[in-house]
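User: My instructor asked us to take a sequence, write out its structure as tokens, and then describe one feature of it. I'm not sure where to start. Here is the sequence I was given:
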Amino acid sequence: MTLTAAMTLAALPARSADTVRSTVDAVVKPLMAGHGLPGVSVAILHGGERHVFHYGVASRKTGAPVDDETLFEIGSLSKPFTGTLLARLEAEGAVDLSASAQSLLPELAGSPIGGASLLQLHTYVAGGLPLQFPDGVDKTNFAEFYRRFEPTGEIGAARLYSNPSIGLSGYLAAASAGQPFATLLADKVFAPLKLADTFLKVPEDRMADYAQGYTRDDAPVRVNPGLFDQEAYGVKTTASDLLRFVEASENPEGLTEDLKAALVAARTGIYRVDRMHQGLGWELYGAPARRGDLLQGADPAFVLKSNAVERPGAPVTGAAVGTVSKTGSTGGFGAYALFQPARGTAIVILANRFWSNPARIEAAHAILSRIDPGFVAE
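Assistant: Let's start with the prediction itself. The structure tokens for your sequence are:
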């Protein structure tokens, strides 16, 4: 942490648990009613203090309350975990993010996607790969899908959010390191950060803690296994563990040098598109956090359409990328994380029903605007 950041953290007054609780209650309770959310967990870091609050039920059928052990699917909020892993593998010399896909998967030799780098795949600039795999693509034929894919534009020129893109980067990085992706993520991210309640596959003895998710139509659902699901959207965790990951991402002091470098690299800007810089999984905005900027990052016109990127000459750090954000969804869960490393303030919100990304962003922004007014701007 820089001296300036340390001085900023020291200057932030801690809020009492009662004050934080009343602030969160005032936002979350009407939110749950308005969006039909069965259960919610909120975890906040501010002024060096951690606050975790739970609301509602983990299952409408059993009535089990949400508590410290409740596991939520976090969907695409898994992507910063993958980005951190890739950055650590590169710091260790096990992976080169500039390596081409075809150098690691020879079946792609001579194809357009074969020439894309791991970094381009991981940051969605590999020529317009789709949001999801088409029906029929699985572990037996995925190489043929990528080999036949015809880019819609120049590799590296435009961003289109894509699970097949980031999923392939994680798969190939693990292949380069010579171990299964799940093993690497557990050994190099979960374990050293002491994330004892974070899993790709929920163990049998923790299934009772696994919240039941609900669709927009209130049908019970949990995420189904899919091609590269672990790499793109597979993490299940508690609010406390997710906040612990965010806290380490904010301030990795005390960790090994390679893990420290990886956590910082994951929230470093790779390129700019409109008001957002793309990190390794994380999405980055200016500080203080402007509500309109955060909402732009969740706009379907931004997420689901190709957008030209501005390529900086060097990685971007500082106030231009001082607000770090990421939403995550599965069919029955909705999650959000928002933090500023320079202020040491963070929030994570987890719910066991799908709800809109703008609603999550609005809720987090509203809570932090009351707890830490300097965090936000209109």
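For the description part of your assignment, you could build on this observation: The chain has a mean pLDDT of 94. Try explaining in your own words what that tells you about the chain.
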